[in-house]
Structures are given as structure tokens and as C-alpha cells.
Design goal:
2 domains, elongated, two-stranded antiparallel sheet, 14% strand, single chain
Length: 330
Amino acid sequence: MKVDTITKDYVKDVDIFADIFNYYIYRGRQIVQPEQLIERDTVKIALPYGADGAMIPVQRFRDVQKLYVAMTDGKMEYVLYGIENQSEIHYAMAVKNYLYDALEYAGQVEETAKSHRKEMKQRKLRGNTDSGNSGKVPETGEFLSGFWKEDKLIPSVTLTIFFGSEKWDGPLSLFDMMDVSDPDVLSCMDNYHVHIIAPALMTDDEIMKFQSSMREVMLFIKYSRNKEKLNEVLESNQRRFQKLEKRAVDVIEVITNAGIKYDEREVEVDVCQAIQEIREEERQLGELKKSKEAARNFYEMGIEIEKVAQGVGYTVETVKQWLGLLDDSQ
């Protein structure tokens, strides 16, 4: 739950959210502006028919969804952008996201139908005195569906972000989840593709197209299991890693367990220094382990404690403590 909460809060920020879709859709061009994004309710409820004809409530929760509103060629255009965060590979992601989009469109149709029914009821109460499109009498098909010929759906784009360092090996389309080779059957079906951002599937040049701290988050996660390469990344991107926002550091830490620590009072974190401190602590712990092993080996060879202590560079009392030779009463 902690991983989900931290990653969700991170991508929910309008600056991060806008940067993610600018990267994926516009290849880094700054088209989507944070002020053009409107928060959306992520709860989706539909009532499909069950096998026995009963109505079954279905409830799904998107991680993050925002409405993008822009003026294009003199008219308003709308797109629904949704994000699903994954810290583990989901082998049915195509179906999961397909369901989200389908529920979104079903919800739009239902809301449109409600709006039309409400308008017709109000018009009836007013005695049909309105004129123009608001006084339209729907055709049979329009009335049955609740969706007029001129009504349009708002596009829904769902993007999956995999916050893992391993390569995503799950299906990336609906067809990938099936074992169908008959071209005639496939020609009657619509495929659904998973739009995914995964560090291991991206080149460094692609990651560098992010303008927000998503760049550092993706780079760190990608090389988190390769100390040598991670050090190179930290050095070549030192300026940005030295002043990384805390929420980005929290994502890095909860995903990689790197051991990064920082003062809660700080606004920005010097990740380079934090990693150096971790490396130094690891080095010291490694040397201590070697000293303990050497002390035990020398002692088992019959060498006096005083000489053992002198050889490993620690006090006699410390070496005795390592070997369990101290009297508990002392």
C-alpha cells in the first residue's frame, strides 16, 4: 500500500502528470500545460447484465485521471488522460486498461443520456416553448440509446507506468494474451494495446526527454541494480540529482530500497551525497566484517588475544566482545 500511495501522489501532481503525457504523446514537446488539466473522479461504476439477467454493480478505481482542455482551431477540445502505476508486472494489463476505457465511454454515454432526459423533461414542463436544437425530437434509435447522432465521446488515453528496474515481460496487447492464429478470426476482432513507460524499455536519450523529476526517477530505477553505471549516471546528471525534490526521492527509495536518508525539513535532497554516504557506510561495514573474520581466524589458530587485537587494529575489549569472551557481569 505504501508503494501505491507514494507513486500515486507523485504522478498526481499536475507538473509531473503533464510531463508524462508530453513525453509519451508528444515526444517531449511541451504541449500539455499543467493549467489545462482538471482533476477527475477516479471511481468508475457500471451495471452490466449478469448471466441470469440481473444487474451487477462493478466498481473500479483508476490511479490518476485528469481532463485535458485545450483550444484548437478555434474550438475547445477535450481528452481524458489516465495513469495506472505498477510496481509489479501485471500480466493482464491489457484487459485491465481496456476495462477502464470501456467503463469511461459507457459512463459518458450514460451521462449524456441523463442530460438529454433531463432537458426533455424540463422542456415538457415548459410546454415545448423552446426552439432550435434544444427542442429536438429524438429519432427512435436516439431515444433508445440516449445518445444523439451529433453527440461525441471524449477520447480516453490510459498510460501504464512501471516503476520497476526489470524488463516488462507481460503482454502489451489484447492479442498477446490470446492464442489465435486464424487471420479470419483476428480480422473480426479489435486489438487493444498497452501504452507503457518502463525504465528498462527506454534508452537514456528517451528518458532525457522528460523535463520534470521523472527523468531522475526513471534513470535511477533503471540502473539501481548496477552500482557502477548508477554512479556514472549520478555524476553526469549531478546538477539535477543534487537538488531533487523529496517526493521524487520518496518514489526512488520505496521502489529501489537504496537506503537514501534526508532531513524532513529539507525541500530538496542531494541524492549524490546521500549515495556517497551509503557507499562509505557499506565500505566501513565491509571492513569491519573482514576484521571480525580475521580476528576469529587468528584466535582459532591459537594466537594471543593481545596480538590478535593489535593485528586487526582494535582494542582487546572489542575483540573479546566479537569472540564472545567477555564476562556478562563486566
